[in-house]
Each structure stands twice: as C-alpha cells, then as structure tokens.
Amino acid sequence: MEEEARKLLEEGIIKKVTSPGKGELSTFPNGTKVVFHYRTSLCDGKVLDDSRTMGGRSKPMELILGKKFKLAVWERVVITMKQGEVAEFTCDNKHTALYPLVSQSLRNISAGKDPLEGQRHCCGIAQIHSHHSLGHKDLDQLQANLQPLVFSIELLEVLAPGSFQLDVWAMTDEEKLELVPQIHEEGNMLFKKGEIKEAMEKYYNGVACLKNLQMKEHPGDEVWVKLDHMITPLLLNYCQCKLLQGQYYEVIEHCSSIVFKYEDNVKAYYKRAKAHAAVWNEVEARADFDKVLELDPSLGPSIAKELKAMEERIRTKEKEEKGRYKDLFNYNGTPATVTTVSLL
User: What is the pTM of this model?
Assistant: First the structure.
C-alpha cells in the first residue's frame, strides 16, 4: 500500500483512506465494471458535485475500465481501492482539466437531458480552451481557473468482465448501432402495454445513443443523414409519449426541429398540431392540420375529429370565462357599484 501511495504521489495524486475496504485488492482487468459514489470538492471544501444528491436522487457512478473514460484519473484511483473502501484523492490540475465537461454531462444525465447537450463538435481540450459556457456558473469558473480537486470516493462494487450487461455508453460504435433497433422494438412493446414512462425512456436512450454517434460526423454528410433518419422515428415516438403525459411544449419543440429538416413529415406536423391545440394555439394548430391534409388527404376524417374537439374546447373555455366575469356586472349589464374607502 505504501508503494502504491508513493506512485500516486509521484503522479500528482494524494490518497487519504477514511474507511478501509474488505477482502483482497482486485486485479482490475480491462472490462471490469466499478460502481462508486463520489463527491467532488475544491480544496477549500466547496462541493461541486455529489452523486448521492445530484438530480435529487442517489445514483452511483458506473465505469467500465479500459473504455477511455474522459476523466482518466477516476480509473487511475479506483484501481487502488478495495471494495467498500472510502478514500479522498487530491489531484493536481493535469488530472482535472476535463472535469468541467464531465460534470456538465453528469448533471445533464441526472436532469434527464442529453448528456452531450451544449458540447461543441470538437474535442474536449478544444472545448476547455474555448469561451463556450457550460451552462453552470461554478463549472464556467472552474473552466476559466483550473485547479486541483478533491474526489471523495466510496467503492461500492467491482464486477468482473462478462458478469454484467454492458450499458449503452460503454459500447463501441458498432455495438450501439446494432442495439438501437432492439431498443426501438422494446419501446414499442412497452408502449403497446400502456407502460408509457418506460417506453419513453427506451426511445430517449435510442435517440441519445444515435446522437452520440452523429456528433462524430460532419452535419450533412452521408453517415450523418443516415443516422438522422434513424433518430427521427424514435424522436416522434418519444413525442407521442410526451403528448400522453401532457408535455406539449416539448412536443412542439421537437416536432419543429423535425419539420425544419423534413418538410414532408406528416407525423411531425400532426403531433405538433395536437400539441398546439392543447395549449390553445388555435392559429398554429389549424395551420399544421391544414399541412397534414395537404400531405395526406386520407387523414381528412381524423383531422375533422381533431378540429371539432378543439372547437368544442374553445367554446367551453369561452363560456367559462364569461361566467367568471358576469358577476362583475349587474342585471342591466352595467358595472356593479364598487364601494371605496378614502385613505385620506
């Protein structure tokens, strides 16, 4: 252990064990899955991230060793730990330069967003040296003023290669492409069973997986377009789930992004029309329903039903609003007398 501590010190890492683990130290061959909780702090004690509280839930970090995780120092330090061990690692700047980007992705994931949201089409080092905001004030400050960080880690579990199913993020590009159709089908089966939330998660994972691959391509190139054509039906299915959950503005946003690229996508116009109707955007809803009819006249009966339902909802709303205000007027239709009290 002393020899390992000396090696870490030479690499600019100071290890302090706060609770020893149990059993023997693993050999950690490539492909090993490590599960751990982490807390990241500045040297003055200010906490940046804590896996036990991030996103309002306690979700440990999972890494597959040898997959070249962006923050290499985490792989370096966990292989010095026994299962159940808790230790603090104070790491020099050279080990923490990419932490702002890693933290941004982890925060996005915990909030249910695309982990690549906000990241440019360039390598991590280029992003660090750009003036691009990461969307979090503390991360922007850290990016502008790189400094040593303290990682408090509790190693929960060590799983040998082949003893677990690979997570999507740990797969090769080829494995991801092969997995997406399976994810799509699983989502469809869950949707048919009425398990909307679970189906939506499948569709989201499929979209995120393909976007991850798309980030490596130049927009408009053949491979990029092919991936985009795979993303579109998954995103539309995701929007259908959001419609059923009443998340109308997100549906409008996603469908607008689709019709911007594919002006003949009937499903995108249809779903956007229904979302507009649900939030009382009557003009926009009628325009989208008209577009659906133009692209596919066979949907006329369905559109007629949607328009009728929208009109009935509008009439009901107008009637309710009239009812709210009628008590402000007397039986002659003139404003009721209001008694005022002088404050002088």
Answer: 0.55
